[in-house]
């Protein structure tokens, strides 16, 4: 999130200062948004950035954690490794609250790696998995930073405190769209790793003798010529098909095993290609954003949120199925799937909880459907107004705007209504 945020939200001069050092790993950054008491509800965060035109030469920000609840909690790498971050904090200018905005924020000394004055950092401790990542916590006590540390591609704050938007302010959270896309593609890859281990294991693991039907075992001794010919043919067949020295069957040959593994195999491919297609749509939309056209912003939010919510949940379920398909050995860390599964689990939570994202997608789809239905049609408007619940509206795919990504999102979301 650190580098994509600099790419998407920093202006050219800011990118020249921070992006290249970040790409060279000369500085190590993270993304500090979540607070102890506010994760999904980003707009509810409490960390403040008060503008003061008298700070530094060009004005500056006074950053503060106002309460224990506002301590930044979870940022990956903040516990020990990072020396800077994108800090999300509420911009307050002359008493007016403009909501959360991204800042470049140094947290440790570039040379000694010691925490800077006014900044307390800690590792939040051991987790179920994903322990290679030192997720951290940060409390900030009255720290001042220059005005130009606010990322200013889509929002500009002048020295006198004038606040100006450039483009759509939803772009402030646009980086999450990209990260969700990456998580969706990664989910397919994680599942593919688990499926690979499980298929290979099932091919070498043998349990039980396969039941073989012995033809002609209970036929009568009185045979006519044709029947004798048939028996002779059967003897020949026995000579041709010698019994295997291994008497037990590969577990992969059991249809019950295939019933569990093969859908996961297909799903891994489906998720991979869905991710690739979504990335093409995203890149096309990005060109529009660069040309200051933001029509596709909502669509991208819907597409990436749907994919992220669905694929991370399917991935986790699928990986667990794979683990079980390896029997007792699947429970060993050495089998690989268990640790990978535990580390992949939080993907359903970070960068947008899967339930919260699904609800947002549902709301957007209903908005799209109702605005299409209401377009100039008073009868539809009356019908919608008289509806007491959303279940009385019968939306169909044809109600949606003609955008390629809406249809799958619609199908995924409405299928959960049907259940
Ligand atoms: C491993 C890991 C790494 C992380 N890395 C980072 C990081 O680098 N930087 C960072 O800033 N954050 C990070 N996070 C934090 C992460 O983004 C948040 O945990 C996530 O946004 C969910 O917020 P929350 O924990 O406050 O959960 P909550 O929002 O409190 O959710 C708790 C429950 O309430 C439900 N819920 C919440 N709101 C609604 C609603 N409106 N309707 C229905 N149900 C609702 C949720 O579905 C969930 O079941 C990380 C988290 C994890 C687990």
List the domain count as a whole number. 2
**Ends distance:** 35 Å
- Taken from the alpha-carbon principal axes, the silhouette is elongated
Q: Please report the first level of CATH classification, the CATH class of the largest domain.
A: Mainly Alpha
CATH T-level fold name of the largest domain: Butyryl-CoA Dehydrogenase, subunit A, domain 3
CATH homologous superfamily grouping of the largest domain: Butyryl-CoA Dehydrogenase, subunit A, domain 3
| Average pLDDT | 86
**Structural class of the secondary structure composition?**
alpha+beta
The main sheet comes to: 6 strands, mixed
Descriptive notes:
With 419 residues, the chain is an alpha+beta fold. It folds into 2 domains: 2-166, Butyryl-CoA Dehydrogenase, subunit A, domain 2, CATH 2.40.110; 178-203 and 253-418, Butyryl-CoA Dehydrogenase, subunit A, domain 3. It is built from 10 helices and 13 strands. Strands 1, 2, 3, 5, 6 and 9 form a 6-stranded mixed β-sheet that branches. It has a 3-stranded antiparallel β-sheet with strand order 4-8-7, with no helix packed on it. A two-stranded antiparallel sheet has the order 10-11. Helix 3 packs antiparallel against helix 5, helix 3 (174-204) runs antiparallel to helix 7 and helix 6 (297-324) packs antiparallel against helix 7. The longest helix has 36 residues, at 255-290. The two termini are 35 Å apart. Residues 213-219 and 384-395 have low confidence and may be disordered. The structure holds flavin-adenine dinucleotide (FAD). Flavin-adenine dinucleotide (FAD) binds next to strand 1 and helix 8.
């Amino acid at each position: 999130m650190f580098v994509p945020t600099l790419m998407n939200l920093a202006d050219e001069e800011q990118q020249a200062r921070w992006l290249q050092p970040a790409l060279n790993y000369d500085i190590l950054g993270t993304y500090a948004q979540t607070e102890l008491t506010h994760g999904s509800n980003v707009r509810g965060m409490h960390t403040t950035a008060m503008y003061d035109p008298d700070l530094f030469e060009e004005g500056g920000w006074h950053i503060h954690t106002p309460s224990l609840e506002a301590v930044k909690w979870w940022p990956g790498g903040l516990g020990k490794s990072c020396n800077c971050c994108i800090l999300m904090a509420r911009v307050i200018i002359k008493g007016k609250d403009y909501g959360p905005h991204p800042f470049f924020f140094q947290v440790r000394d570039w040379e000694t790696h010691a925490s800077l004055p006014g900044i307390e950092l800690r590792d939040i401790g051991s987790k179920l998995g994903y322990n290679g990542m030192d997720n951290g916590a940060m409390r900030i006590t009255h720290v001042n930073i220059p005005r130009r540390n606010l990322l200013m591609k889509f929002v500009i704050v002048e020295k006198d405190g004038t606040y100006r938007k450039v483009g759509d302010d939803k772009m402030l959270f646009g980086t999450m769209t990209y990260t969700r896309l990456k998580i969706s593609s990664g989910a397919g890859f994680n599942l593919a790793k688990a499926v690979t281990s499980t298929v290979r294991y099932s091919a070498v693991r043998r349990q039980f003798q396969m039941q073989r039907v012995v033809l002609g075992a209970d036929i009568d001794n009185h045979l006519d010529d044709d029947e004798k010919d048939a028996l002779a043919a059967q003897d020949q067949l026995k000579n041709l098909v010698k019994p295997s020295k291994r008497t037990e069957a590969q577990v992969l040959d059991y249809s019950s095993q295939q019933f569990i593994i093969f859908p996961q195999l297909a799903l891994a491919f489906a998720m991979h290609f869905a991710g690739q297609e979504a990335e093409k749509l995203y890149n096309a939309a990005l060109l529009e954003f660069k040309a200051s056209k933001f029509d596709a912003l909502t669509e991208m939010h819907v597409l990436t949120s749907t994919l992220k919510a669905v694929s991370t949940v399917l991935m986790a379920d699928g990986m667990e199925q794979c683990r079980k398909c390896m029997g007792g050995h699947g429970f060993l860390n050495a089998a690989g799937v268990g640790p990978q599964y535990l580390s992949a689990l939080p993907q359903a939570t970070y960068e947008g909880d899967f339930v919260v994202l699904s609800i947002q997608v549902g709301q957007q789809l209903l908005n799209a459907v109702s605005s299409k239905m209401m377009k100039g049609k008073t009868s539809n408007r009356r019908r919608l107004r008289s509806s007491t619940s959303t279940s009385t509206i019968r939306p169909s795919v044809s109600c949606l705007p003609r955008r390629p990504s809406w249809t799958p999102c619609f199908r995924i979301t409405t299928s959960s209504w049907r259940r």
